[in-house]
Amino acid sequence: MKARAHTLFQQTLLGDAAEHAEIGLMVWNEERRYVAVNTFACKLLGVSREQVLGSQVGDQNPTDAAREAIETALHELPAFGSTPLPNGITVDWITVASDVAGLPHILGLMWEATSPEN
């Protein structure tokens, strides 16, 4: 029982850390729909959580790079790059396949790109 409590604590801690991290985190399913997104991803995209959840992957960033990353991720290969968003922010990102809640999902991480002089 103690080991299970420890595992639950770690899962709760990781979930809370992901929600409040200064890195955007988005999870999407095989139907290419977002099923989870953290606060910082919404901030980077300039949209609300409600606007993202359930929306089609790529709706928030309809670029060739985003489409290519989606196809790569669907083949369970990591994809990464740098993409300017419609709101003027450029983000660096990586997508990787993962099992979330025992089901296959794609995990996307993004952060604001820094210029070479920073």
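Second entry:
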Amino acid sequence: MSRRRGPSPGLKADLRLDTALACPNAFDTEGRILAGKGTPNSELWIHARVYAARPDAGAVVHAHPPACVCLAQIGQPHRVVHNQGGAFHAGVPEYERIGLIRTRELGDLLARRLGAGIAVMMRGHGITTAASDVRTATVAACLLEESARLQLDMLAAAGGDAARIRAYTREEAESVGDQISPRVVERAWEYYAGVARKRPLGG
């Protein structure tokens, strides 16, 4: 995950997690390392180019949640199937190209696919979320994985027939679209932080 910081809209910090050690590096939207020790994550271009395309983004989260990967790999679009999924009522696009985002050009392609949205699914890879702050971007990532997991469970219960899933209509989804509002994010962050504290790293 990363957050934008400093007076320059191009400056932000990448938080790279190595086992139990977080090594922060600061770099700009062109991928130039500005400060910090250690080697930044090879996919820093995800963060750098999303910030370049999205002046409104204060934080970016990139993760590899299994249910989201699974949903994309069986060719199913994200559907709003529960209230918390209402955060994604505008839809979740898919970045279809496989492989890692290790160049500026690929970062730009991903940023374009994300557009002005909250999240993008990355085929065979994971997800990326962008929001105003770290907590909102993190909660959005957690909610998307929860939503994808429920959709997979529903598909299994329906014998693989997606038509049997009672996905929310656009109007229904929009009516519960406040799931990443500041008040909801605060409560959700407390919950997920509590769960994380009880789990070993990588568990």
